[in-house]
Amino acid sequence: MRADELREDVTIEQVLAYFGGQVPTGRSWSSWQKMVCPFCSDTNGSATINHGAQRFICHQCGAPRDGKAGDIIDLAIWAGDAHDYRDAVEWLTRTFMR
To answer: Between 20 and 30 A from 3 (CA), which of 9, 26, 77, 85?
Structure first.
C-alpha cells in the first residue's frame, strides 16, 4: 500500500489509541487540542493533536522526533514499531488494514 493511501485510511486517532492514548472528544477539526501523551510520563495534557491536519506533538517528551509535529508514519517510527519510513508503512498496513 502506498503511504498517501494509508494516510487516507488510517487516522492519527487510531494510531494514538493503539499506543494507549486517550484522544479528546468534542473534536475541533481546525485547531490543536490538549491530551495526555501515551509515550511519556505526562499527566498534565502536555501533548496536542490536530484532527484536521492529522498531526500529533508532545511538548514534554518531544515525541515524535524532538518536538516536531508528526503524522501516523512518524508515530510508528518514533514509538519503536518501525525503524524507517518503509518499515512504518508496512507496519501500519499490517496493523490497521486487516
So the answer is: 26
d(CA 88, CA 5): 14
Domains of the chain: 3-96 (3.90.580.10)
Characterize 28-62 residue by residue with b for buried, 16 or more Cβ atoms within 10 angstroms of its Cβ, and e for exposed: eeeebbebbbbbeebeeebbbbbbeebbbbbebbe
Per-residue pLDDT tens for 20-63?
888 887 666 668 888 888 888 878 888 888 888 899 988 887 65
The residues facing 50 across adjacent strands are 55
